[in-house]
Amino acid sequence: MWIVIGCWLVYTVLSLHAPATTNARFQLSSTWLLVLRLTIIVPLFYIWTTAARGATTFKTYAMLVKDGREGRAFNDIANGLLWTVAYVIALSLSGSMIQFFQHWQYYDALVVIRDHLPIMIALVGFFLLYRGSDRLRNAAEFTTWTSGTFGLLAGYAAFSIALVLGFSQATPLQSSAQSSMTILPRTLLLYTQILPYIAAWFMGILAGVNIAKYAKNVKGVLYRRALQNVVYGIWGVVIFSAFLQALALVSRYLLNWQLAEIVLLLYGLMLLYSIGFIFISKGAKYLTKIEVPE
Amino acid sequence: MIKNGTLYSQVTSITEEYLGPAAERFVSRQISFHLGKQPQELTSADLPKFIEWSRVTLGLLTEDPDIVNEYVRKLNELVR
């Protein structure tokens, strides 16, 4: 939690002292710029700490049951959740840091790192969520591949094809902000950004399916009740962090949106994503109570 | 490892209907904390005390008295 608060303080300092050139795209007065920065900084504190609290509460539960049959599975899921929290922090922090290096000779390299670091984190997080959910599948012996899963993945396949086509045919944005699309070839970005995101979301969907099926099939009426909140929370985190990642991707490369639209959507999604962690926290507290009721 | 058919495994099996994978840990904890024994050493003579403690502890986990009463009824069947 202290790491998250530390990151938030760094983000606050960087945002309040951001170079004026970053305002070139939107041409806001200094008062409006301050108001805008505060409307981002203050909700971010709530979002980051709520998410961190949910993930650490679940991690505490996972540590408690680490010697049990499902211990390793829950540990993977807890670590996956911590990585998704790291994703949201890295997304905001990398964006605010890079503004200070606009005139540095290696600025382009930093832009490429900024655009690729979050996907690396998202990939690790969703992989851990999937691996944990697969371990739960082995423990409770159910099958992932039912008609419902195939239906869900058919919809996802259609979305993925649309994303790849949209990305391949889009015209690069005429924006003051530098992005990897103006530095690297489009085909390379397809393999280093779009396909990794598609793979990460695919694993996220499978993780959500497996965890929901585990909660439905596992023995224990009270245990299932506690897990239900965790299931809602993990679905929330998977869906909203995937939307968040998709929005970060398309707003950087494909859509020339207005400032208000980007800010509202981005922070609306982050808020919904943090609500997922409230459910996880609630479920994890109940699961912990089962383990340590006295 | 507890052999199937022992009193401990019967108690765990009933508890599993309510607490799932947490059942074994729950039962072991009740026996060692409240009876001061190893789980394998649970005997019929310990059951009334075990059931009483389990009723209290499960009551902390749910506000549904039907679940607690049903659990206690199933455990009491082992006493007979």
Notes on the protein architecture:
Chain A is mainly alpha-helical and 294 residues long. Chain A contains eight helices and no strands. Chain A has helices at 2-16, 30-64, 71-98, 107-140, 147-169, 186-217, 221-253, 259-291. In chain A, α3 (71-98) runs parallel beside α7. The two termini of chain A are 26 Å apart. Chain B is an all-alpha fold and 80 residues long. Helix content of chain B is 70%, strand content 0%. The mean pLDDT of chain B is 87.
Short recap of the structure:
The complex is a heterodimer of chains A (294) and B (80). Chain A is mainly α and 294 residues long. Chain A contains eight helices and no strands.
Structural class of chain A: mainly alpha
Q: What is the string of SSEs of chain B from the N terminus onward?
A: HHHH
Oligomeric state of the chains present here? heterodimer
Taken as a percent bin, the fraction of beta residues of chain A is under 5%
Outline the low-pLDDT stretches of chain B. none
Largest interface: A-B, 19 and 19 residues
Q: Could you tell me the number of beta strands of chain B?
A: 0
Question: What Rg of chain B, in angstroms, do the CA atoms define?
Answer: 11 Å
Main sheet attributes: strand count, strand direction, barrel closure of chain B: none
What's the tally of helices of chain B? 4
Structural class of chain B: mainly alpha
Number of helices of chain A: 8
Poorly predicted sequence stretches spanning 5 or more consecutive residues of chain A: none
Count of DSSP strands of chain A: 0
Level of helix content of chain B?
Answer: over 70%
Mean pLDDT across every amino acid position of chain B = 87
Apparent shape of chain B = globular
Query: SSE string of chain A, helix = H, strand = E?
Result: HHHHHHHH
Roughly what is the average pLDDT of chain A, rounded to an integer? 85
Main sheet of chain A? none
Helix content of chain A: over 70%
